[in-house]
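S1.2 Input.
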Amino acid sequence: MLAKTNKTILITGGTGFIGSNLCKKLIKDENNTVICVDNNYTGSLDNVKELLEHPRFKFIEHDIIEQLNIDEHIDEIYNLACPASLSAYQGENAIFTTKTCVLGALNTLELAKKNNAKILLSSTSEVYGEPLIHPQKETYRGNVNPIGKRACYDEGKRCAESLFFDYHRLYNTRIKVIRIFNTYGPMMNPKDGRVMANFICQALKGDNITIYGDGSQTRSFCYIDDLIDVIIKIMTSEDDFIGPVNTGNPDEITIKELAELIRKKINNNLKITYLPLPSDDPTHRRPDITLAKNKLNWEPKIKLSEGLEKTIKYFDELLKK
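S1.3 Output.
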C-alpha cells in the first residue's frame, strides 16, 4: 500500500505498457490525482479504461512534441512517453522518435521548472549500445552507433539524459533518471515487435517461434510489478539521489533459452525458426543493479517462470477477444 501523499502526478506515455501500469498503481493511493497524457501512438485507452471514470484520474490526448500546458499545479512528473520497440521507432518513424525523446524532454522539463515539480525520465539500457563491459554499470559511457537505424532511440534518450542533467545544473530542477532494461508483463502491445510479446503470441497462435540471429544473444527480463516498485522508490527518494539508475533484473538468459521456455509452457510441439539478426542489435544485455540495491534497498522479486505465467495468461485472454 502506498503512503497517502495528496499529490498531483503527471504521467506522459500514460496509456502505454509501463505508463498504464504506473497509473493504476499510483491511483490506488486515495489522495493521488493522476493526469495521464498520451497521443496513443503505441499506447491504448483500453489499457486505462478501468480508470477513465475515476474521480481522481484525468486523461489528456496530447503529443509531447508540442508544448504541454496543464492548469493544475503538478507535484511530480513521470516522463515515459516514447516508442520503445523496433517496429515503432525505426524507419519512417525515426525522426518522430528523436523529436519525442528530445522535444518531449524539453517540454516536460519546462513544466517541471514552472511547477517546481520533481521529474523522472525513463531512459533505457540502449544508451549503452553494444556494450564493451558486462554487466553494464551506470558509470559505463556506452558504445552506440550514432548513425545507425537504432540511433533515433539510442541517441534520443542520451540527449534527453543530457537535457535533464543540464536543467538540474542550471535551474536546480529536481530530476531522477532511470535506465530501464527489458521489461515484460500485462499491457504489453502484442504487435510491437518486442521479443517477449512476439514469442508468447506466436506460441499461443500455434505459429513457429521466430528468433533473429542464432539465439545466443542475451537479455535480462524484469517483470512489470518489480519495475513499477523501483520507479516509485526512485521518485520518492531524497532529492540528491538523481541517478542515472539501472532498473532491471540481473538474471540473464539467452534468446534461444527464452524461446524454449515459452514453447515448453505453451506448446512443446512448436518449431523454432531463425532469421537474420537486425543491425546494431546488442549481443549482451544485463544490468548491474548494485546502486539500486544500496540506495533503495531494491531488487526484483518475481522470477521469470512466475512472470511468464502471468504474462501468458494476459496475452491468452487478449488474443481470445
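S1.4 Remarks. The domain at 8-184+222-250+286-300 is CATH 3.40.50.720 (Rossmann fold).
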